[in-house]
Amino acid sequence: MFRNQYDTDVTTWSPAGRLFQVEYAMEAVKQGSAAIGLRSKTHVVLGCVNKANSELTSHQKKIFKVDDHIGVAIAGLTADGRVLSRYMRSECINYGFTYESPLPVGRLVVQLADKAQVCTQRSWKRPYGVGLLVGGLDESGAHLYYNCPSGNYFEYQAFAIGSRSQAAKTYLERRFNSFMDSSRDDLIKDALLAIRETLQGETLKSSICTVAVVGAGEAFHVLDNETVQKLIDAFEIAGGEEAPAADPDAAAEEGGAADQGAAAAADQGAAATDQGAATEEGVAPMDI
Amino acid sequence: MESNQAKNSLLSSHDNIQRTQYPYVTGTSVVALKYKDGILMASDMGGSYGSTLRYKSVERLKPIGKHSLLGASGELSDFQEILRYLDELILYDNMWDDGNSLGPKEVHNYLTRVMYNRRNKFDPLWNTLVLGGVKKGHKYLGMVSMIGVNFEDDHVATGFGNHLARPILRDEWREDLTFEEGVKLLEKCMRVLLYRDRSAVNKLQIAKITEEGVTISQPYSLKTFWGFSAFQNPTVGAEGSW
Amino acid sequence: MTKQAANWSPYDNNGGSCVAIAGIDYCVIAADTRMSTGYSILTREYSKICKLADKSLMASSGFQADVKALQKFLAARHLIYQHQHNKQMSCPAMAQLLSNTLYYKRFFPYYSFNVLGGLDTEGKGCVYTYDAVGSYERVGYGCQGSGSTLIMPFLDNQLKSPSPLLLPAQDAVTPLSEAEAVDLVKTCFASATERDIYTGDKLEIVVLNADGIRREYMELRKD
Description:
Chain A is an alpha+beta fold. Chain A is built from 9 helices and 10 strands.
């Protein structure tokens, strides 16, 4: 059987110039249930799909408040996500202690990326297996960032990560032009619609998704189930029976311009087109 | 005195670190106030080595980044050390180049933490600092002492200034002072200090900070009048002096 | 050069008085806004009252830099608490945290004299008084700071609360109505300002009840 000689530790290069362990970590992100984020000039909305691992458990928390002005949505290894959220919280508290003002989002994101990068260059470490959508507000406005295990980070207008996120990405790509001037409620509506895209036919209910908002004059908070259900009903977007409106052609094109080079490279071998529906039913093994 | 020395050796006996117990070269009062468009600050340029006037052209008002102005009295070397800390801080801020910058509130708070930390180590920075600034239409004026005591006010003054200048400021300060009125008021304060504070010298600078930025005046002197008869022969009427 | 400065001290006393009174369903916390050093006034508008959580407020006098450090520490701890427990800290919990925090610096103390006021988990008013190194007690009313020696006996006289020595223990909250308590606090400070040079300028009164927080101010003598 074919065995990869260059993936036994993080610090070994393949002759093709790849770091397989890092790429595997990026795969872990794709296995986790989806998380999405989008922003306007003044608001950021984060959302995620809550998948319970078994009938007998509840789902895990995937959206965390970092500070009044920053929050994260994660996909991948939830345990790693919690650790990184804790790190971000303490950074915010420390900055607040010295300056009595909120830590700029972009700077926190760079610190976070640097922390992830260290794990890709030490033989006794492993990369974090989690992707984070960091949403926040600072002096220069609302921001949405995506941080991945490789230590790369990107700023987005709107983005989706995790299993079947391609459908949500396609939806967001079609609509993002209007996001900048969207109202808060329209942003939430788009968030719910994007989440619905990842459900592939399943009915959108407040029990299987979480939505959080941060914006001008509004501290980061997770919307409670009741509010979310009311919004779903008000917008009449539960969906379900009728097939979601994803463009079939868009689902085929991987990543789009925004996707990281490393991930694109990883795809050429394996059939890793962002989690096909087939693997989905067999649970996401890493999302524990 | 003996008990003092005992105390001193107690503080420094652990290792050979020398901690500041008293200042060497000091600057005297800084006076500052809010006015219509921002902050005005004044200080003279003397540096005293005890009662010797050791330096005569020290700048004690410095711009910090785009939005802040710092004035200092107390140990001049410590002030220059603080300027190095702030330089690094502002440089680091600029290097991000991300549209975020430290405002006067942030700088003041940072200084508060620096001063308080050093006092916790029994190694104080021997200064009283005045920090003024404007950012996003918000005027800020605050003070920090060498042990970390800090506050904001519409007008502040360090050292002798707190005794001699602030009563004048409390009388005459208004929220809507124009630039000219503000300068006149500061000069009035500085003149009183010049007459009554022996370490004050007649060479001063006035700095202004507004939304547009910092301007620090060239050194200049105040008009004084020493021709009072009591000044000319101070011992007249003081019987039995010598 | 001869040393002319007095030996340096890491402490200062910035003065000020704080009072807190607990009622059956309210709590009144008050402090003057003068900050002094020696015989000089540094500022006439410095608030000594700090909101630590939804239902706990701390009024502190003593050394301002230590007080500020203490407030910032408690604020940071409260943020962590909220992250971990998803709720506000209760006043009794905050009271214990404050005590632990003060005792942690037992041998280089925070020179701060605090009263903590708030509503307990049943919505009843509560007041805790402390010394600088963390010993504390839940009481019906409390007073700290430079004017405390003038105010405390007056409160004892006016509130006539049941003695803490009584067995079984009697409820410590005062029988006064909210408005009466606010009036009493104003009288306390008006009197203390007459005789204590470190108390004056302005009185800040914070009232905490089921409706939330309300603030009142009263001018005091400025001399």
